[in-house]
Amino acid sequence: TPVAAVIPAAGRGVRLGPGAPKALRALSGTPMLIHAVRALAASRHVSLVIVVAPPDGAAEVKSLLDAHALPGGTPSGSWGRTDFLVVPGGESRQESVRLGLDALPPQYGVVLVHDAARPLVPVETVDAVVEAVRDGAPAVVPALPLADTVKEVEPAAAAGDPEPVVATPERARLRAVQTPQGFDRAALVRAHETVTENVTDDASMVEQLGLTVVAVPGHEEAFKVTRPLDLVLAEAVLARRRL
Ligand code: C5P
Protein backbone atom coordinates (compact mmCIF):
# COMPACT_ATOMS: atom_id res chain seq x y z
CA THR A 1 0.00 0.00 0.00
CA PRO A 2 1.38 3.44 -0.93
CA VAL A 3 2.73 5.73 1.81
CA ALA A 4 1.97 9.45 2.11
CA ALA A 5 3.43 11.98 4.54
CA VAL A 6 1.59 14.92 6.09
CA ILE A 7 3.88 17.75 7.23
CA PRO A 8 2.21 20.26 9.57
CA ALA A 9 4.07 23.51 8.94
CA ALA A 10 1.48 26.08 9.99
CA GLY A 11 2.94 27.01 13.39
CA ARG A 12 4.13 30.51 14.23
CA GLY A 13 7.26 29.36 16.06
CA VAL A 14 6.89 31.90 18.84
CA ARG A 15 9.51 30.18 21.07
CA LEU A 16 12.12 30.65 18.34
CA GLY A 17 11.84 34.44 18.62
CA PRO A 18 10.33 37.05 16.25
CA GLY A 19 10.37 36.48 12.50
CA ALA A 20 8.74 34.45 9.73
CA PRO A 21 6.67 31.33 10.48
CA LYS A 22 9.10 28.73 11.85
CA ALA A 23 8.90 26.35 8.89
CA LEU A 24 9.96 29.12 6.50
CA ARG A 25 13.07 30.18 8.41
CA ALA A 26 16.33 29.33 6.72
CA LEU A 27 18.82 26.67 7.76
CA SER A 28 22.04 27.01 5.83
CA GLY A 29 20.18 29.19 3.30
CA THR A 30 17.27 26.80 2.69
CA PRO A 31 13.87 26.99 4.46
CA MET A 32 13.45 24.43 7.23
CA LEU A 33 10.34 23.10 5.50
CA ILE A 34 12.31 22.28 2.34
CA HIS A 35 14.81 20.28 4.41
CA ALA A 36 11.89 18.42 6.00
CA VAL A 37 10.21 17.63 2.67
CA ARG A 38 13.54 16.41 1.23
CA ALA A 39 14.11 14.22 4.28
CA LEU A 40 10.81 12.41 3.71
CA ALA A 41 11.08 12.34 -0.09
CA ALA A 42 14.45 10.62 0.41
CA SER A 43 12.59 7.50 1.49
CA ARG A 44 11.78 5.24 -1.46
CA HIS A 45 8.54 4.32 0.38
CA VAL A 46 7.10 7.85 0.36
CA SER A 47 5.30 8.81 -2.87
CA LEU A 48 3.22 11.81 -1.73
CA VAL A 49 4.00 14.67 0.66
CA ILE A 50 1.14 16.92 1.83
CA VAL A 51 2.43 20.18 3.31
CA VAL A 52 0.06 22.02 5.65
CA ALA A 53 0.99 25.68 5.22
CA PRO A 54 0.27 28.73 7.37
CA PRO A 55 -3.40 29.67 6.61
CA ASP A 56 -2.38 32.81 4.68
CA GLY A 57 0.78 31.29 3.16
CA ALA A 58 -0.32 28.36 0.98
CA ALA A 59 0.54 30.07 -2.33
CA GLU A 60 3.97 31.12 -1.03
CA VAL A 61 4.71 27.57 0.17
CA LYS A 62 3.60 26.11 -3.15
CA SER A 63 6.01 28.33 -5.11
CA LEU A 64 8.78 27.56 -2.61
CA LEU A 65 8.34 23.82 -3.22
CA ASP A 66 8.30 24.39 -6.99
CA ALA A 67 11.46 26.52 -6.74
CA HIS A 68 13.30 23.77 -4.85
CA ALA A 69 12.19 20.94 -7.14
CA LEU A 70 14.92 18.42 -7.83
CA PRO A 71 17.43 19.35 -10.56
CA GLY A 72 16.47 18.12 -14.00
CA GLY A 73 13.17 19.96 -14.07
CA THR A 74 10.06 18.15 -12.92
CA PRO A 75 6.48 19.22 -13.56
CA SER A 76 4.95 21.51 -10.96
CA GLY A 77 3.52 19.51 -8.06
CA SER A 78 6.18 16.82 -8.21
CA TRP A 79 9.75 16.21 -7.06
CA GLY A 80 10.90 13.33 -9.21
CA ARG A 81 9.03 10.27 -7.94
CA THR A 82 7.48 12.19 -5.03
CA ASP A 83 4.34 14.27 -5.58
CA PHE A 84 3.37 17.08 -3.28
CA LEU A 85 0.22 18.96 -2.34
CA VAL A 86 -0.13 22.14 -0.28
CA VAL A 87 -3.18 22.85 1.90
CA PRO A 88 -3.82 25.72 4.35
CA GLY A 89 -3.52 24.86 8.06
CA GLY A 90 -5.50 25.64 11.19
CA GLU A 91 -5.35 27.09 14.69
CA SER A 92 -3.74 24.05 16.36
CA ARG A 93 -1.29 21.41 15.21
CA GLN A 94 -4.10 18.87 15.56
CA GLU A 95 -6.39 20.83 13.25
CA SER A 96 -3.55 21.29 10.75
CA VAL A 97 -2.96 17.52 10.64
CA ARG A 98 -6.68 16.88 10.17
CA LEU A 99 -6.80 19.34 7.25
CA GLY A 100 -3.87 17.46 5.72
CA LEU A 101 -5.66 14.11 6.15
CA ASP A 102 -8.77 15.56 4.47
CA ALA A 103 -6.66 16.10 1.32
CA LEU A 104 -5.26 12.53 1.26
CA PRO A 105 -6.23 10.58 -1.91
CA PRO A 106 -7.90 7.19 -1.29
CA GLN A 107 -5.05 4.89 -2.38
CA TYR A 108 -2.77 5.78 0.54
CA GLY A 109 -3.13 3.19 3.32
CA VAL A 110 -0.14 4.29 5.42
CA VAL A 111 0.32 7.87 6.63
CA LEU A 112 3.34 9.48 8.22
CA VAL A 113 2.93 12.71 10.18
CA HIS A 114 6.15 14.70 10.39
CA ASP A 115 6.84 18.08 12.00
CA ALA A 116 8.35 20.65 9.64
CA ALA A 117 10.30 21.61 12.75
CA ARG A 118 12.32 18.34 12.52
CA PRO A 119 14.15 19.14 9.27
CA LEU A 120 17.12 16.81 9.71
CA VAL A 121 15.51 13.43 10.37
CA PRO A 122 17.66 10.72 8.69
CA VAL A 123 16.05 8.51 6.04
CA GLU A 124 16.85 5.42 8.13
CA THR A 125 14.41 6.66 10.79
CA VAL A 126 11.68 7.31 8.20
CA ASP A 127 12.16 3.82 6.76
CA ALA A 128 12.12 2.14 10.19
CA VAL A 129 8.76 3.77 10.98
CA VAL A 130 7.23 2.76 7.63
CA GLU A 131 8.44 -0.82 8.01
CA ALA A 132 6.94 -1.15 11.50
CA VAL A 133 3.55 0.04 10.22
CA ARG A 134 3.76 -2.35 7.27
CA ASP A 135 4.56 -5.13 9.80
CA GLY A 136 1.14 -4.51 11.34
CA ALA A 137 1.40 -1.83 14.04
CA PRO A 138 -1.51 0.67 13.81
CA ALA A 139 0.76 3.42 15.15
CA VAL A 140 4.55 3.77 15.39
CA VAL A 141 6.67 6.46 17.04
CA PRO A 142 10.44 6.98 16.84
CA ALA A 143 11.70 7.40 20.40
CA LEU A 144 14.89 7.98 22.38
CA PRO A 145 15.83 7.43 26.02
CA LEU A 146 16.12 10.59 28.11
CA ALA A 147 19.33 12.18 29.33
CA ASP A 148 17.57 14.26 31.99
CA THR A 149 15.55 12.98 34.92
CA VAL A 150 11.93 14.14 34.53
CA LYS A 151 9.76 15.48 37.38
CA GLU A 152 6.04 16.07 37.43
CA VAL A 153 5.26 19.39 39.16
CA GLU A 154 2.22 21.38 40.21
CA PRO A 155 2.60 24.22 37.68
CA ALA A 156 3.02 27.66 39.27
CA ALA A 157 0.42 30.36 38.62
CA ALA A 158 3.12 32.90 37.70
CA ALA A 159 6.18 32.15 35.58
CA GLY A 160 9.35 31.87 37.69
CA ASP A 161 7.60 30.96 40.96
CA PRO A 162 8.77 27.75 42.72
CA GLU A 163 6.75 24.68 41.71
CA PRO A 164 6.12 21.77 44.11
CA VAL A 165 7.39 18.43 42.77
CA VAL A 166 4.63 15.82 42.65
CA ALA A 167 6.37 12.72 41.25
CA THR A 168 9.54 11.36 39.62
CA PRO A 169 8.77 8.69 36.99
CA GLU A 170 11.49 6.05 36.58
CA ARG A 171 13.73 7.46 33.86
CA ALA A 172 14.62 4.11 32.32
CA ARG A 173 10.97 3.59 31.35
CA LEU A 174 10.55 7.02 29.70
CA ARG A 175 11.16 7.92 26.06
CA ALA A 176 11.18 11.24 24.22
CA VAL A 177 9.17 10.79 21.03
CA GLN A 178 9.92 12.33 17.68
CA THR A 179 8.42 12.31 14.21
CA PRO A 180 7.69 10.97 11.63
CA GLN A 181 5.01 9.04 13.45
CA GLY A 182 3.51 6.33 11.24
CA PHE A 183 -0.09 5.13 11.10
CA ASP A 184 -2.52 2.82 9.52
CA ARG A 185 -4.62 5.42 7.73
CA ALA A 186 -7.98 4.22 9.07
CA ALA A 187 -6.70 4.29 12.68
CA LEU A 188 -5.40 7.85 12.36
CA VAL A 189 -8.53 9.14 10.65
CA ARG A 190 -10.73 7.55 13.35
CA ALA A 191 -8.51 9.06 16.07
CA HIS A 192 -8.94 12.52 14.58
CA GLU A 193 -12.72 12.03 14.36
CA THR A 194 -13.01 10.75 17.95
CA VAL A 195 -10.50 12.59 20.14
CA THR A 196 -11.36 16.22 20.80
CA GLU A 197 -9.11 17.27 23.69
CA ASN A 198 -5.85 18.97 22.81
CA VAL A 199 -2.84 16.66 22.46
CA THR A 200 0.78 17.25 21.51
CA ASP A 201 1.25 14.23 19.26
CA ASP A 202 -0.87 12.10 16.96
CA ALA A 203 0.04 8.74 18.47
CA SER A 204 -1.55 9.71 21.80
CA MET A 205 -4.89 10.07 19.99
CA VAL A 206 -4.56 6.51 18.67
CA GLU A 207 -3.65 5.35 22.21
CA GLN A 208 -6.92 6.88 23.41
CA LEU A 209 -8.78 4.60 20.98
CA GLY A 210 -7.21 1.66 22.85
CA LEU A 211 -5.02 0.64 19.92
CA THR A 212 -1.40 -0.47 20.32
CA VAL A 213 1.28 2.13 19.70
CA VAL A 214 4.87 0.90 19.41
CA ALA A 215 8.16 2.78 19.68
CA VAL A 216 11.12 2.14 17.35
CA PRO A 217 14.57 3.70 17.82
CA GLY A 218 14.61 7.41 17.01
CA HIS A 219 17.68 9.46 16.04
CA GLU A 220 19.40 12.39 17.73
CA GLU A 221 19.36 14.33 14.43
CA ALA A 222 15.54 14.15 14.42
CA PHE A 223 15.43 16.77 17.21
CA LYS A 224 12.80 19.51 17.03
CA VAL A 225 13.95 23.03 16.25
CA THR A 226 12.10 24.97 18.94
CA ARG A 227 14.41 27.48 20.65
CA PRO A 228 17.23 29.67 19.27
CA LEU A 229 19.94 27.22 20.45
CA ASP A 230 18.35 24.50 18.29
CA LEU A 231 19.16 26.59 15.20
CA VAL A 232 22.84 26.57 16.19
CA LEU A 233 22.74 22.78 16.57
CA ALA A 234 20.94 22.33 13.23
CA GLU A 235 23.54 24.44 11.39
CA ALA A 236 26.31 22.38 13.01
CA VAL A 237 24.69 19.10 11.92
CA LEU A 238 24.40 20.37 8.33
CA ALA A 239 28.04 21.54 8.35
CA ARG A 240 29.14 18.10 9.58
CA ARG A 241 27.13 16.41 6.82
CA ARG A 242 28.90 18.52 4.20
CA LEU A 243 32.36 17.37 5.38
O1 C5P B 1 4.66 24.12 18.20
P1 C5P B 1 5.31 22.81 17.89
O2 C5P B 1 6.80 22.91 17.81
O3 C5P B 1 4.82 21.66 18.73
O4 C5P B 1 4.81 22.48 16.40
C1 C5P B 1 5.08 21.25 15.81
C2 C5P B 1 4.73 21.30 14.35
O5 C5P B 1 3.34 21.56 14.18
C3 C5P B 1 5.48 22.41 13.60
O6 C5P B 1 6.00 21.85 12.40
C4 C5P B 1 4.41 23.45 13.36
O7 C5P B 1 4.59 24.20 12.16
C5 C5P B 1 3.14 22.61 13.26
N1 C5P B 1 1.91 23.37 13.58
C6 C5P B 1 0.88 23.47 12.63
N2 C5P B 1 -0.26 24.20 12.90
C7 C5P B 1 -0.40 24.85 14.07
C8 C5P B 1 0.63 24.77 15.06
C9 C5P B 1 1.77 24.00 14.79
O8 C5P B 1 1.00 22.91 11.54
N3 C5P B 1 -1.50 25.58 14.26
From TrEMBL:
Pathway: Isoprenoid biosynthesis; isopentenyl diphosphate biosynthesis via DXP pathway; isopentenyl diphosphate from 1-deoxy-D-xylulose 5-phosphate: step 2/6. Keywords: Isoprene biosynthesis, Nucleotidyltransferase, Transferase. The keyword Transport does not apply. Transmembrane segments: none annotated. Signal peptide: none annotated. It catalyses: 2-C-methyl-D-erythritol 4-phosphate + CTP + H(+) = 4-CDP-2-C-methyl-D-erythritol + diphosphate. Its EC number is 2.7.7.60. One of its GO terms (molecular function) is 2-C-methyl-D-erythritol 4-phosphate cytidylyltransferase activity. It comes from the Bacteria. InterPro entries: IspD, IspD/TarI, IspD/TarI_cytidylyltransf_bact, ISPD_synthase_CS, Nucleotide-diphossugar_trans. The record marks 15, 22 as: Transition state stabilizer. The record marks 171, 224 as: Positions MEP for the nucleophilic attack. Belongs to the IspD/TarI cytidylyltransferase family. IspD subfamily. Catalyzes the formation of 4-diphosphocytidyl-2-C-methyl-D-erythritol from CTP and 2-C-methyl-D-erythritol 4-phosphate (MEP). This is 2-C-methyl-D-erythritol 4-phosphate cytidylyltransferase. It comes from Streptomyces eurythermus.
